[in-house]
User: What shape does this take?
Amino acid sequence: MHGNVTANTGSQISIEVSSFYLECVSSSGFFTMQGQGLPWCWKTTKSDSFELRGGKCSEAAKSLTLLWSTESTSCSFTRTALTGTFKTSPEEAVMTLLDQEFAVESGFCQPFKLDINYSMETAISPFTTLTIS
Assistant: This one.
């Protein structure tokens, strides 16, 4: 996930997400997930919580769409928004998404639930993990 900070007021952080891409391995094998309909908006919602939704942060919310692909098939999944938590300083800014269910938009796939932890880093080498205070 890559993006640019559009607001950082001390109590509100907003990031306009310009790309979202995951490479994953599961019991079914290797697959990728790519965000569709970008930009998306990542923003804090309350203490130590965030929301990731479709559309720019300055626009009305839109749904999120993910394209799931393997070597032999692909499917689109959708969800209104993702909600999660993050760790604050002095710990690294690790984001946690648990039990986030996506519905099938197209293709012959089953709905899935996303459970993931990820950290925020600078996009320029040397990559530095961020903290949120």
